[in-house]
Design goal:
globular; two-stranded antiparallel sheet; 13 strands; single chain; alpha/beta
Length: 461
């Protein structure tokens, strides 16, 4: 059964905030404010990692609801029984079939004569070096973090629930009816949509995306989840290589991350931020950046709740501008929180995006941090953007990605942005955005750092 809520939200967000803040204090689960940024609470770290739970929150406009419902069915099908035609290879679920599809192009990745792109080869099965490296599970007699079991299948072990934020009653009813009709015609023994909640946000007289995140994605709703993933309605989530994406999330453990973005076709608009677009060198798996944009951010739950608390304690002027639709620099600010707790000036990312042989890799549990890669006392890089004559001088021994997992973009698991432009950007939006960015720049020394990176993560040579 689809849960369709008709909720009045006027004043509700503030009531929820104070209740959850009290509960948080009483249970001593406040986000850690250590120098290296917020981390998962002791409650979350003690949680078994065999099953990862994620709440997917999507803002849905009239032109998007059919595709969003299709995404729900695709992701829920990970846990449905296989059809009779697939039963021989996968007697219990479709997950084995999906995993085989996920890895079906690995031979092309290792063929030096092949040129592959997510446009011509398909993003849903797009290969990468982590996914396709046969040595991942027993390199140097060690188990690689995030790949604890050779047969780990993220189609099974990552379980998603959905919060669909409908912009009006018509969208809410259309999604509810469509989910109900497709569920009744399903031959699966498992109900397809018990894990879907639909909220008509127009009843709260505010359809602004960020404001609804603040209102609805609170500690009560996110209890017992590992991640919360805010995804725009015009993102084709079914285009993602689900297994490969979560494989890298578990490996790098970013506080905030996103898949790289591509358009429907080569040359079509993905995102305006070049460092968040798909990167064509397959050796470059990911990078730590100063911005994860509003389109599709995935948060550790404690990181989101900590940032939400910071925002809730800001001036009324900032909150009013967020209500109006202002969002400029909001995504830079949460990366400043993830890396530096919003303390001091946001350090400008010093490196160009590109392959560097000395960059961190998953191939070893430790790597040599060289002069060119030296990590400063505040967590920022003090090096240049490439290898130099001093690159062989070891100055520290670090685990891969340690200190570089605040905001991470995953380049080799791209997702399609259909770019429906359903968000109206009127005068209030532009005026509010200018005011929000000015607030963060003046009070938290945020920079418009959208063209360089803190670090790149690469495949082993």
């Amino acid at each position: 059964m689809v849960k369709l809520h008709r909720m009045l939200m006027v004043g509700m967000g503030f009531v929820i905030y104070f209740i959850t803040h009290m509960l948080r204090s009483q249970n001593n689960v406040a986000t850690s404010m250590m120098d290296d940024g917020p981390s998962l609470s002791s409650t979350n770290t003690a949680r078994k990692q065999r099953t990862t739970k994620v709440l997917i929150a999507r803002t849905v406009s009239p032109s998007e609801y059919e595709h969003v419902v299709a995404d729900v069915h695709r992701i829920n099908s990970h846990h449905q029984e296989a059809s009779s035609s697939a039963a021989a290879s996968s007697p219990s679920s479709l997950a084995s079939t999906y995993l085989a599809e996920s890895m079906s192009q690995c031979n092309l990745l290792h063929n030096s004569s092949s040129t592959i792109t997510p446009y011509s080869n398909g993003s849903k099965t797009f290969p990468n070096h982590v996914l396709c490296d046969p040595n991942n599970y027993n390199r140097n007699n060690q188990t690689i973090m995030g790949m604890e079991e050779e047969n780990e299948n993220n189609y099974l072990t990552v379980k998603a629930d959905f919060l669909l934020l409908a912009r009006n009653a018509e969208v809410a009813n259309s999604m509810s009816n469509l989910l109900a009709s497709t569920n009744s015609s399903s031959t699966s023994h498992e109900q397809c949509c018990d894990n879907v909640e639909i909220v008509d946000v127009s009843l709260g007289e505010n359809t602004i995306k960020i404001w609804n995140w603040i209102q609805h994605l609170n500690e009560i709703r996110l209890y017992d989840y590992d991640y919360v993933w805010m995804i725009d309605g015009d993102i084709d989530l079914s285009s993602l290589n689900w297994h490969a994406f979560w494989q890298q999330v578990k490996l790098i453990r970013p506080k905030i991350c996103q898949p790289a973005v591509i358009g429907n076709d080569k040359g079509a608009h993905g995102t305006s931020h070049s460092i968040l677009n798909y990167y064509g060198d397959s050796r470059v798996l990911a990078s730590e950046v100063a911005i994860i944009e509003l389109m599709t951010p995935l948060f550790e739950v404690d990181t989101w709740l900590g940032y939400r608390d910071v925002i809730a304690n800001q001036s009324q002027d900032l909150l009013n501008n967020l209500k109006k639709g202002g969002e400029d620099c909001f995504d830079l600010a949460w990366c400043h929180y993830a890396k530096f707790n919003m303390v001091g000036e946001q350090i400008w990312p010093p490196k160009k995006l590109g392959y560097r042989p000395s960059a961190p890799t998953y191939a070893t549990l430790d790597y040599d941090a060289t002069v060119g890669d030296n990590v400063g006392s505040n967590g920022g890089d003090n090096g240049d953007n490439g290898d130099n004559n001093n690159s062989s001088t070891t100055v520290a021994k670090k685990k891969p990605f340690e200190g570089h997992n605040s905001c991470v973009v995953l380049y080799q698991t791209p997702v399609v942005h259909m770019n429906k432009k359903s968000l109206g950007k009127g005068r209030n939006f532009r005026k509010g955005g200018t005011a929000v960015c000015k607030y963060f720049r003046e009070n938290y020394r945020i920079h418009w750092a959208i063209k360089s990176v803190y670090e790149v993560f690469v495949a082993p040579a």
